[in-house]
Target: Glycerol operon regulatory protein
Amino acid sequence: MSDFVQSLERGLAVIRAFDADHPEMTLSDVAKVTGLTRAAARRFLHTLVELGYMRTDGKLFALRPKVLDLGYSYLSSLGLPDVAQPHLEKLATEVHESCSVSVLDGTDIVYVARVPTKRIMKVMIETGTRFPAHATSMGRTILAAQDPAWLDSFLATTTLTPLTSRTITDATELRAELTRVSTQGWCVVDEELENGLRSVAAPIRNQGKVVAAVNISTHVSRPVDSVHTDLLPPLLATAEAISADLTASGGTLGR
Amino acid sequence: MSDFVQSLERGLAVIRAFDADHPEMTLSDVAKVTGLTRAAARRFLHTLVELGYMRTDGKLFALRPKVLDLGYSYLSSLGLPDVAQPHLEKLATEVHESCSVSVLDGTDIVYVARVPTKRIMKVMIETGTRFPAHATSMGRTILAAQDPAWLDSFLATTTLTPLTSRTITDATELRAELTRVSTQGWCVVDEELENGLRSVAAPIRNQGKVVAAVNISTHVSRPVDSVHTDLLPPLLATAEAISADLTASGGTLGR
Model:
């Protein structure tokens, strides 16, 4: 395809080659991880150093904070975090639990705003963290709002990987659960993403269309009754407030 | 320079052309903002759509959440947020104020971890947010630890832009303040970044070298005495705890 700029694909692959297990790499390491020739890897690394996205001591290469500007372009263009954050902070203060907002990207949810309080998850959750949509309360909340043809295709093509012994992995069972979520307007997931984790989510709408979800994470030691009595009312109020502000702001999210 | 991959520079510029004021753009908009020809802009936009970083309805283009993966590569390779976040959460719970960690990038500080509680800043602070180092408590904390030659060059080449009527804009005055900060081991900044904002910061060290800073933001209505009595001891303890964990983790930050 002549319209495809392979150099851009390769340069982005060089950035993504770095992670917690590969914070610093030599030219040879980068060539190996990306499958590029040494000559090509050298050109991309030097370009990224030149542009301020990477640093090197001549031997080892590492990413610089400017890489965050790229993700910031997305978050800023989304408009959602700006709108959601004050409401999330208020909710977290009220319920004393971590609260988050996610959007759907393919078969994953991606966190776009978060106010952490108690640490329940084993995994660190940053903006940009992904989890499989089918096993999370925010994911099911967004999936439940999709049109039937889209959902048929999602269920036909997505492997419902179990993340704990309780994860729903049967498409028919998941579809029944999504119908229930759609009817009741919120979603609880118990220990399907991680043992010990109970989470409740509600939809965020832009001009009536579900474009994101907001949740509260808690521990299974909090009884389901308390989730219904203490967490659900402020969660639903927060989802409504974010939806109203998002619609009023003319945000492009989900348009 | 033959080693420079211009296509990568241009592709990254296309991503960065999108922001809160330009969440969706046509091909012509992108060409105008980036200075590319329409033909070049089309190739980069189509490549980004193909790679999943962008979506289009055929006319308007917008970024997709996958762009966050790029910033995530940096944060993940840093190791610092993982190490700092539990300590930040504990600190925020203890002092009931927003707490953050930043690193220095050029003349800016860049936020790499944050636990928001009360909203004091007018600006939304996401991971990746930048402020001029000279006007912030975290920036001065990191600047104060740099070697004299580096600091001379910084002060000779950086415009000390006033952000409020109280911002120090005189290089000699700033140097005196940095010496004081270096001696006392922490830094308070009052309303030099934003009116109403008082902030106190302490250095984070990796193997003895200052590589980042942690701060607590509060309102000027909290007396300076209370900053010294109530905020400084837990802040210093947090800075020590993060430094110890960072050093123990063998993190590459600042190496």
Remarks:
- The mean pLDDT of chain A is 91.
- The first helix of chain A runs from residue 6 to 16.
- Residues 6-63 of chain A form a domain with the Arc Repressor Mutant, subunit A fold (CATH 1.10.10.10).
- The longest strand of chain A covers residues 209-219.
